[in-house]
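Support reply, case 0932

Customer input (verbatim):
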Amino acid sequence: MSRSGASAKKWLVSRTNTEFVDYLSKSANVSPIIARILINRNIKTPDRVTDFIQSSITSMSDPMKISGMDVAVWKIAEAIKKGRRILVHGDYDADGTTATAIMVNVLGGLGALVEFFIPSRFNHGYGFHEKAVDLAKERGIGLIITVDCGISSFKAVDLAMEYGIEVIITDHHEPQWSEEQGGGSGVTPFKPILPDALCIINPKLDGIDSPLSILTGAGIALKLSQALTGSLDDIRDLLDIAALGTIADVAPLVGENRLIVKEGLCLLSSGNRPGIRALLKTAGLSNRPLCPDTLSYSIIPRINAAGRMDDASKVVNLLVTQSAEEAEEIAKTLDRLNSERQKVEEEVLVSALSRLNRRARDCADTDDNVIVIAGEDWHEGVLGIVASKIVDRFNVPAIVFSIKDGLARGSARSVQDIDICDTISSCSEHLIQFGGHKQAAGLKLRAENLTSFEKAIKTRVKDKFSGKDFTPTITIDADVYFKDINYKLINELSKLAPYGYGNPEPILGAKGLLALKPRVVGKNHLKFKLGFNGHVIDAIGYEMGDMVHELTSNARLDAIFTPTINAYNGTKSVQLNVKALRPSE
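Our regenerated output:
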């Protein structure tokens, strides 16, 4: 049997001590399968199991425990009282625009004279820059609050202070670190190099073990809003926006991120906010159940399309407006921009793959432990998406550049085990500017330095990761017997949601199965039944229709899957969402 889609990945079964599984199952009153899944996710005590399953927004921590929060609340309250104009400076991606919308909503509700600024990807570039400070001076701004940016904006902060404009930075990106030792056990081992802002709110500065270090820009904006209002009830209606930013930035769905998304999904599904309601309608999702995966392939690309193709300020306007007519107009614009983005993305991807194929033909010994590819005037708005698709295809980090006017601007994406931002940092002598996360980064350099940069970064990866296998792995949470797959188990599994990065949808496995009545349905989906010892369950493998002729009634199979409920014509039944198949040994 050939391997298709996820079947080409390595299968890894998480093993857990059976006696400990039995203990946790009984003491936490969950099934052994649920206990095994939670143990594999480092949730190993009855109290933690209960907290995870029953968690709610009331479990959110005190925002005043974040460094700098007390100064920020005091200064913002002072600015509101004195009638000073406040500028919220965001960023052009979904996390930056949602963070901006959160702050504009809450500050407006507190009576602040608030306005916002979203930089243009094409005219300003990423982050907080001097151009924005000049604009703030022209507008008579007295206080700038950055969201999702600013942690490395030394020149912009200095200029603002020179103009007499105070700056509060809220950011979740990694700061620059000095080699000087920090505070010791439990805190950051090195001292951060920080702009001279009035205060900086970034949980990454609160120690390497800070549970809030996983928050996104939108999450930190929500914590600041919580501190400003002093009440969870007063920020509850902002959770839909914060959930979008958290999902869009692929933050781990654990801790407070999970609380934000869990509660936010309920608000998103209700569609009470005019902008959200219009987006759902445009995407054909009105009155349909929502999950992070659905939003990642529908709503979030439309939000990101504004910054990729045009002006991301439209997104903030969408999320703050109370006008249904304005919301529908903006949503239609975002839908159009997303269609344009898809077309441009395909053109750049085809061009990039063509160049890679030519390179492979012309230079058989090319060492592509990192793929670096550049094109003249490739659209900068789609470079990150193209890099992601190259990573998916070749299982190595990818950096895609657009060359214009002697400069190469690029977006990098990585495989799970390589911190691409740290790796790029080690090649900083070739760069003009860079920044980002472990899995994604942006950078800029002179086009004439592309060759030397490519050589340097490939050398770094080779030296540090030589011989490492980056073949994607599917982790199987538990082996199961078919007799244990029922509605009760599916109901228990639903309590572990929402699923996403850091809290993936549980994947179960079974061996020695028989495939019955295979056929192709829809757009190349494999519909069949799986049976074992008289227990037969419906199954579907999305985009696995090519395997239909390989399934025979007497061939034993191993399968990995997620049990779901299939509702069709008013009838509900258990169905296995099959991720991969392989011949049994």
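We compared this against your earlier run and they match. Two observations from our side: The chain has three domains: 5-54+473-583, 61-252, 367-465. The chain has a mean pLDDT of 92. Please reopen the case if you see a mismatch on your end.
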